Amino acid sequence: MAAVQDAPVEADNEKEIKTETLNDAAGNHASAAGGVIPSPPVASTSSSGPAKAGGPGSEEQQTLMAVLQFLKKNNFVGAVDVLRREAGILEDSDESQGQELAASALGGAEAGDATCTLSRASSCTTSTPAVAAAPAKGGEDQPDVNVVLSAYSQQGDPALYQGYYSGLKKFVESVLDCHRAELSQLFYPLFVHMYLELVYNNHETEAKAFFEKFSGDQECYYQDDLRVLSGLTKKEHMKGNETLLDFRTSKFVLRISRDSYQLLKRHLQERQNNQIWNIIQEHLYIDIFDGMPRSKSQIDSMSGSLAGEAKREANKAKVFYGLLKEPEIDVPLDDEDEEGENEEGKPKKKKPKKDSMGSKSKKQDPNAPQQNRIPLPELKDSDKLDKIMYMKEATKRIRLGPESLPSICFYTFLNAYQGLTAVDFTDDSSLIAGGFADSTVRVWSVTPKKLRSVKSAADLNLIDKESDDVLERIMDEKSASESKILYGHSGPVYGVSFSPDRNYLLSCSEDGTVRLWSLQTFTCLVGYKGHNYPVWDTQFSPYGYYFISGGHDRVARLWATDHYQPLRMFAGHLADITCTQFHPNSNYVATGSADRTVRLWDILNGNCVRIFTGHKGPIHSLAFSPNGKYLASGATDGRVLLWDIGHGLMIGELKGHTDTVYSLKFSRDGEILASGSMDNTVRLWDSIKAFDDIETDDFTAATGHIHLPENSQELLLGTYMTKSTPVIHLHFTRRNLLLAAGAYNP
Amino acid sequence: MADERRPKQCSLVLPTESMKVMAESVGVGQLQEECCVALSEEVSYRIKEIAQDALKFMHHGKRRKLTTNDIDHALKLKNVEPLYGFQSQEFIPFRFASGGGRELHFYEEKEVDLSDIINTPLPRVPLDVSLKAHWLSIEGVQPAIPENPPPVSKEQQKVESTEPLKAVKPGQEEEGPVQGKGQGVTSAESKGKEKSISRLKPRSTHELSVEQQLYYKEITEACVGSCEAKRAEALQSIATDPGLYQMLPRFSTFISEGVRVNVVQNNLALLIYLMRMVKALMDNPTLYLEKYLHELIPAVVTCIVSKQLCLRPDMDNHWALRDFAARLMAQICKTFSTTNNNIQSRITKTFTKSLLDDKTQWTTRYGSIAGLAELGPDVIKTLILPRLSIEGARIKAVVEGPVISNIDKIGADHVQSLLLKHCASVIAKTRPLPDNVDQYRADYGYLGSMLCSHVVKARAQAALQAQQVNRTTLTITQPRPTLTLSQGVSTGSGPRTPNIIKVPSSLTLPVQTLVSTRPVTPAQPSPPATKYIVMSTSTAAATSPQVISLTSSRSSSPITSTAPSSTSTLQPLVKVEHTGQSVTTPGAGGSRTLQKYIVVSLPSAVSSEVKASSLSSPSTAVDSTVKADRTELPGASTHSSH
């Protein structure tokens, strides 16, 4: 049972969490913790002594009882004796005494280092509790131990729950204003856990009454979860319900200032409110900080995720957000355009061009990762040509800003009958791919150049391989058409992505596969199987070769096109991964999830290096700024949030959309952020201003408390209605023309 | 805390009776109550779970509507066999039944006869997905092209005109999230400026951009110019372009001034052109015309009742103009008349007054009768029928009396046929059956005998029509799911809201001669064989072809090729031949076809055509959702010329 995981072990142990969730993903929730290293119980007893000595919390007490019981059951008499002696527990100590002890421990904890004890998950670095809990895990299939350890077993009188809750409510309402907002954070997790306890212990009517009475108090952004909860009234339902599992396996993280926390603790202590205290101990992670309590708006901006806010520690890791050095390519000068065309094909050894691009790439950005941190594919000649084209186009790029807004060209899919689910443009804007609900992927050429496939093998034998225009000759002129259809998936296609070199196309589908298509032959090359459930999104790395996919199984996978198995699995999200995006330097990937968090993963070691909370609905779009410093995310709540990756902070909130934001894109120079939504609008935002307005001094960076300016309206540069066409995808061409796409939906 | 911010989460549970019914349906009888309770709770929970999963699929499918497929996928997620057979794209109607103390909601599944399916012709293949590009914004400004929504919605135009102080400039976002749609504001400063200004007084923008001026010039010139093709395009543009609201005051003034001048100069052709402009403006769904009725109505009424509209009243067919304008007036009344402005009653009063005046000229008399008659059978019944005998006497005086002037005689003739046409149908509906000539004569005086014969005809026709209706609906009900948008990028139909051009239900030009259909854009593949070869055998045919073309996008006319002649006592006036099934021609979607209705003469009414054309309107409505890409139009091209 997942309930085992109340022990403090996992809190800091990233690895473990990951394994569990992986297993979750594989579908065997029941044995979620099975992957944890089970250490032999005998070994644990000897080392569990110091745990007692180091100031016993009620938690540890309880754990000890469990261990004792386990040992007894397995006839480790000696071990039991030793443990008893060490822990100072009398032979006849029973549950009631345990309760008492817990209460006294509470007092002791306050006298001692309060913070340390209560937020022990982070501060208790002694290995003891970890090991102490491990045997319990090993024996988790033992029913009686399970009952003892089960999170919701030590219930009080079910009738009193309402009293507990309203007592706390009264208390919170009576405290000073500055603390009230912080303490109000407790309501939702407490509510959920109390409700679940009631359900777990088969107090159905009490649970219903409890829900009826207090569900209205919860913040509106938890509504989706409450809806799930409301349906759940039986213990049997709790098995296999993912949302609940999330609640029980992961600790709800709250950030509370030390003063507010002391207030709460004193209150609970006075009232002897063990029930609530236990829940706080077991299911909540309280991140205590020194300083001013946060205001309601500050809290609101950060909360909303399924498992509370991110711990501060989670966002402390260093992220190399800088861009990689551009490979040195000699660019022919502009006036040599014709020449450049002629010289295509052979690598150039001419004088390097002294334009801005070249000089910029000379300096090494201190925030950039090492060039070879992630092995990247070598540039082919054709890639170099493309780079040259890119630079040429870049020189003709329009500088955007509030005074010069981009033109928007809208590509409407007609007769799509609501079936369009995903769109992608190639970087040079020559091709459009659409994924459809009827399992097809279609590719259009939006330039006069038609799509041609390579000739069949028999025909290829006939052509002269020595001729200069062999690349032309292999193409089948008869197959030229404006669009091609790719058949292969057996379910709606939810994501498409072009490779940067335009030779490949990725698509992911409800059928659980990611497919790689060749745009030379317009056939499927590989079907990557790994996700067993629908894959919601896939994305090629900006350097090609790698790609990321994420889906209903809550795991994002990193693949390389030439491996049929994933290279990395990024596990940690508590709900479906809804969107994925590569960092421009290809060393990181961002994933957005239905658990309302955005996570940033390091490709090198698979670690989660950033957790961004603040969205109030599933996240459906992500975009990195071209300089790699910022991330924008859009969700079903219609808001777009801006994040500073380096500091791990929220730095902006763009309100305006009235429906899900399905697409986000920064302009090529990062001055404009374009967002497209289900509400049939494209909106343009002044991203420069949004980034400049925020002051990221050391204090805010350290605490993560940010005052968001209410300036959405000032940042909004334009709103463009379409004619009942939801905007599904946005793309800036190399010259900063904005392309948008969507299906006409009469 | 979020007190009362949203409705309470309710935990609904399926009734236990449903469990019983379902159990019975799979052969389990006598289910115990406790089982039912346990089952219903479990089932409710699972259903909720599945629904919540299905929502995920909806979100990822980028839709707002949950489909049966989403449910199937959610079931698949849970490793449950999907429900096969529920492929409905639309709402599934549940029916309710009760009896024996039980209440049931069920989905009606009709038994389908396989042979029916085999024998029905296959529905047409839906059009393939296609891609079309347009400018959503050009350097921050949204061009007013058909592909984009109207820059200022009708509601907003209304707000602007009715509550000028509250008016919000486009692009300004302060009054709420919805209103600010439309043009983007190019700079934050100008936005700020506008904000502060709007607090004081709305800035009324009467200046037009250069493009708009050009467009206005082109359109007005084309509308009154000599080239009929250009005029048709211009009128089409007026009737469909969404961005005209800024030019509306100019158009309105243009029309009202134009009528004023041309009535004095008796320039019939120009008056007709101007009336067609009015019609086109009224057809444009994005315009808020209420503000300009004070200019338009006098112009229209002038064209109905003016004493003289042309230089040669004996030769020119100004009667058609009066008819057309009368219909316009009726349409105006229908659309805009409210209890506040009382347009209809005021107009009725005006017409009645001139009708009652003995000194009224025949032309004006004709106009006022036509104007009243178009307002509907009720008006005819209450205002015209009682006057029949008086008018009859007056006509008799002219026709049988000493010849005073030829003009009067023609006028009397026209009034007579007009009265017969309109009154006959009304009488046929209201008067009890025995159609006795003497009785008619007693009731209606001089016109009685003719009226009687018309009524008899009308009755016969009504009977025939009933059949026709059946037949027509038969042909129309064939599924035509694909007509809305055209195929391929090249044919270029834009994404448009179904912008149905109303074919007025009383499209009663006495004789509609369908001369030719003309695909306007030559580049487009013109629909094959949509030819209407019309031979008019009417006597007065070729003399004065006053062209009144109504821009209906296409008239679907497999309806009445036989109808008109069969019941009419007059010579068959119109013969419509069509080669090929024009309506169902695939690929015709993108082309725009203009019909010309050339008024050839004014013989006495053949109301079957009238009815036929009104019958055709439903199918026309279906077809007319097809909109053509109109980049060749001056307006559109000027806008997209960046």
In short:
The complex is a heterodimer of chains A (746) and B (642). Chain A is of the alpha+beta class and 746 residues long.
Describe what this molecule looks like in 3D:
The complex is a heterodimer of chains A (746) and B (642). With 746 residues, chain A is an alpha+beta fold. In chain A, 34% of the residues lie in helices and 24% in strands. In chain A, helix 5 (58-73) crosses helix 10 (128-138). The radius of gyration of chain A is 29 Å and the shape is globular. With 642 residues, chain B is mainly α. Helices cover 48% and strands 7% of the residues of chain B. Chain B has a 3-stranded antiparallel β-sheet with strand order 4-8-6. In chain B, strands 1-2 form a two-stranded antiparallel ribbon. In chain B, a hairpin with a 2-residue loop joins strand 1 and strand 2 (102-107). In chain B, helix 15 packs across helix 17. At the A-B interface, helix 15, helix 16, strand 3, strand 5 and strand 28 of A face helix 2, helix 3 and strand 3 of B. Strand 3 (408-414) of chain A pairs antiparallel with strand 3 of chain B, so a sheet runs across the interface.
Poorly predicted runs of chain B are 1-9, 167-202, 469-642
Number of strands of chain A: 31
Unreliable spans of chain A are: 1-56, 93-149, 335-361
Mean pLDDT of chain A: 76
Identify the biggest protein-protein contact and residues per side.
Answer: A-B, 95 and 74 residues
Write the layout of secondary structure elements.
The complex is a heterodimer of chains A (746) and B (642).
Chain A: H1 9-12, H2 14-26, H3 41-47, H4 49-53, H5 58-73, H6 77-87, H7 95-111, H8 114-118, H9 120-123, H10 128-138, H11 143-149, H12 161-174, H13 177-184, H14 187-200, H15 204-214, H16 223-231, H17 235-238, H18 242-249, E1 252-257, H19 258-271, H20 274-283, E2 284-289, H21 296-302, H22 337-342, H23 356-362, H24 381-395, E3 408-414, E4 420-425, E5 431-436, E6 441-445, E7 451-454, H25 457-462, H26 470-473, E8 475-481, E9 483-486, E10 493-498, E11 504-509, E12 513-518, E13 523-529, E14 535-540, E15 546-551, E16 555-560, E17 568-571, E18 577-582, E19 588-593, E20 597-602, E21 608-613, E22 619-624, E23 630-635, E24 640-644, E25 649-654, E26 661-666, E27 672-677, E28 681-686, H27 687-692, H28 698-703, H29 712-715, E29 716-721, E30 729-732, E31 738-743
Parallel strand pairs in A: 1-2, 3-31
Antiparallel strand pairs in A: 4-5, 5-6, 6-9, 7-8, 10-11, 11-12, 12-13, 14-15, 15-16, 16-17, 18-19, 19-20, 20-21, 22-23, 23-24, 24-25, 26-27, 27-28, 28-29, 30-31
Chain B: H1 16-25, H2 33-60, H3 68-77, E1 94-99, E2 102-107, H4 114-119, E3 130-137, H5 154-162, H6 188-200, H7 210-224, H8 228-240, H9 248-264, H10 268-283, H11 293-305, H12 318-336, H13 343-356, H14 362-374, H15 377-384, H16 388-400, H17 406-430, H18 437-444, H19 448-476, H20 488-491, E4 513-519, E5 531-534, E6 546-548, H21 563-567, E7 576-579, E8 593-599, H22 607-623, H23 634-639
Antiparallel strand pairs in B: 1-2, 4-8, 5-7, 6-8
